[in-house]
From TrEMBL:
Positions contributing to Mg(2+) binding: E71, D86, D89, D213
Keyword annotations: Hydrolase, Magnesium, Metal-binding
Species the sequence originates in: Sinorhizobium saheli
Parts of the chain that traverse the membrane: none
Protein name, UniProt field: Histidinol-phosphatase
Cofactor: Mg(2+)
Length: 268
């Protein structure tokens, strides 16, 4: 495999972003509003903008030939390598002072996600995945992550960020999946995907994601043993409706519950 940037560079990026986000967290914020189809309120703060600015500056200084796609400033550059970044994934909880937001930093090679990190600076946690595995770091140290071994859908824990938008997508049978699992929880943003990789959650279902919402999380989930695809079993890098599961057997059952083709086998 083509040599990836060192994981230490992901940590440098996360350090730079946290220098812009953490001092603004739980402070009085000037909140602007963007337009996003399907959302009545799509906020952005100076933390989002400044964190993406420093991320772009650092990437461009170290890897000037790499493209960058970010939520706030779009796509720049061309080539096989592309950084995909969301400076504050979870701006709504960021505004509310709830620490389930994170900075997402991913890298694709020929449009396939090859490494990524989720940094939560308030809790001092980082989760990352690369060709060596998936890892979590907190005050107790660094440990390898593994997903849960649950294969019975009726015993699974499901997370989705909000039930609000499912009415806009009647083809996604969320109610059937919700009624098939042991427990459903809401509101975890990108943190929920990290908890799936860490073995705390079995299934995450999210609607209408952008590439920067999911690309950085793909290696974390996959290298921990999980499966993440679109709802027809396709690769998830382009975003859209995304299902992540702790293992392939559970993923197949979840896809079936959603009344979509059971395509988990052979897609990764």
């Amino acid at each position: 495999m083509t040599k990836l940037p060192p994981v230490s560079f992901l940590h440098r990026l996360a350090d730079a972003a946290s220098g812009e986000t953490l001092p603004r967290f739980r402070t009085e914020l000037d909140v602007e509003e963007k337009f996003k189809p399907g959302y009545r309120f799509d906020p952005v703060t100076l933390a989002d903008k400044e964190a993406e600015r420093v991320l772009r500056d650092l990437i461009s200084s170290e890897y000037p030939d790499h493209a960058i796609l970010g939520e706030e400033y779009g796509e720049t550059g061309t080539g096989p390598w592309k950084w995909v970044i969301d400076p504050v994934d979870g701006t709504r909880p960021f505004i509310c002072g709830i620490p389930v937001w994170g900075t997402l930093i991913g890298l694709t090679l020929e449009d396939r996600s090859v490494m990524g990190m989720m940094s939560q600076p308030f809790t001092k946690e980082r989760f990352w995945g690369d060709e060596e595995g998936a890892w979590a770091q907190d005050s107790s140290g660094t440990r390898r992550m593994r997903t849960r071994s649950t294969t019975d859908l009726s015993r699974a824990i499901l997370h989705t960020n909000s039930p609000e938008r499912y009415g806009d997508f009647p083809e996604v049978n969320f109610a059937r999946l919700r009624d098939s699992v042991q427990m459903t929880r809401y509101g975890g943003e990108c943190y929920a995907f990290a908890m799936l990789a860490a073995g705390q959650i079995d299934i995450c279902l999210e609607l209408a994601l952008q590439p920067y919402d999911i690309v950085p999380l793909i290696p974390i989930i996959e290298q921990a043993g999980g499966v993440v695809t679109g709802l027809a079993g396709e690769r998830p890098e382009a975003g859209g409706h995304i299902l992540a599961s702790a293992n392939a057997a559970l993923h197949e059952q979840a896809l079936r519950a959603l009344n979509l083709p059971s395509c988990a086998r052979g897609v990764i």
